[in-house]
């Protein structure tokens, strides 16, 4: 018995969705077929890979095998893309928040466009809640979103989770009077960070005021650099010239959870774009 890509695809789907049901929807197979593939894989490896309980999780051996499975499956996909994927054509509609665009878009566009020259990639940047609303209306084939709760979007694949920090110029808070409202730089409603910040401050009975508002990540960071107020953002996206604020009076914010939602239809171009995005984000 040897490893095959179908088995690896099923294992990766279970590992990433933490659900046999969601994995079955993702790969287009029945739940029992997914279970059989995992059992076959565990028999081949001679180690338990999945902890089956109220919530699925990987065993220590499963975590180790996950790294190998990703590498093997990625080489398989890359080889197919290299020789067969140029035949793909059409238009793909991809939506994501503006701050994510600056982090992943250039690399994904270069790789994807090089392998799929006949596919037109239509990209739009929007706030997460607007992306979800438009995705439900059929405006996008694929969206990358952020939420305050893990698995808040049932059909989404959880990509990664990250701490959200207070960010700003430290000198702005040097002479801060706790009785005065905290100046905030936020995006307008609907915004996941905005809800996170305001809910957290209200829960701790802290006064705040909206000092500046813009839907643009670049404009908000400019306002924070100018000392108009403080904001909140996930740790990996904090600009080098701004401080991560850890003052005692600032409460801990909820983590951000990043998910990928894909239109459920058989489309090789959509599947290939999903592969490129996950490859970029999970490395």
Automatic annotation (TrEMBL):
Q: Which SUPFAM superfamilies match?
A: Periplasmic binding protein-like II (SSF53850), Winged helix' DNA-binding domain (SSF46785)
| Coiled-coil regions, chain positions | none
Q: Name one GO molecular function term.
A: DNA binding
* Superkingdom assignment: Bacteria
Cite the entry's keywords alphabetically. DNA-binding, Transcription, Transcription regulation
* Stored InterPro entries: LTTR, LysR_HTH_N, LysR_subst-bd, WH-like_DNA-bd_sf, WH_DNA-bd_sf
Record-annotated HTH lysR-type domain positions: 1-59
Q: Which family does it belong to?
A: Belongs to the LysR transcriptional regulatory family.
What protein am I looking at?
HTH-type transcriptional regulator gltR
- Taxonomic source organism: Fluoribacter dumoffii
From the UniProt record, report the name of the gene that encodes this protein.
Answer: gltR
């Amino acid at each position: 018995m040897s490893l095959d890509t179908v088995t690896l695809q099923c294992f990766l789907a279970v590992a990433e969705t933490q659900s046999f049901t969601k994995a079955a929807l993702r790969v287009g197979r029945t739940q029992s077929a997914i279970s059989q593939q995992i059992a076959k894989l565990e028999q081949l490896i001679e180690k338990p890979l999945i902890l089956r309980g109220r919530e699925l999780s990987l065993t220590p051996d499963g975590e180790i095998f996950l790294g190998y499975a990703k590498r093997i499956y990625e080489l398989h996909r890359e080889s197919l893309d290299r020789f067969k994927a140029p035949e793909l054509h059409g238009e793909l509609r991809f939506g994501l928040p503006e701050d994510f665009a600056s982090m992943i878009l250039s690399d994904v566009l270069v790789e994807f466009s090089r392998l799929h020259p006949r596919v037109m990639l239509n990209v739009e940047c929007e706030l997460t809640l607007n992306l979800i609303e438009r995705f439900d209306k059929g405006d996008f084939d694929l969206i990358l979103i952020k939420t305050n709760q893990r698995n808040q979007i049932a059909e989404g694949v959880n990509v990664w989770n990250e701490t959200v920090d207070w960010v700003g110029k430290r000198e702005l808070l040097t002479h801060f009077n706790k009785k005065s409202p905290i100046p905030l730089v936020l995006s307008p409603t609907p915004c996941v960070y905005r809800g996170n910040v305001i809910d957290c401050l209200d829960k701790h009975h802290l006064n705040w005021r909206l000092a500046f508002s813009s839907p643009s990540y670049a404009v908000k960071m400019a306002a924070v650099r100018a000392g108009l107020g403080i904001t909140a953002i996930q740790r990996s996206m904090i600009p080098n010239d701004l401080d991560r604020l850890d003052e005692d009076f600032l409460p801990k914010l909820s983590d951000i959870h990043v998910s990928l939602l894909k239109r459920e239809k058989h489309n090789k171009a959509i599947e290939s774009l999903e592969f490129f995005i996950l490859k970029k984000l999970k490395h």
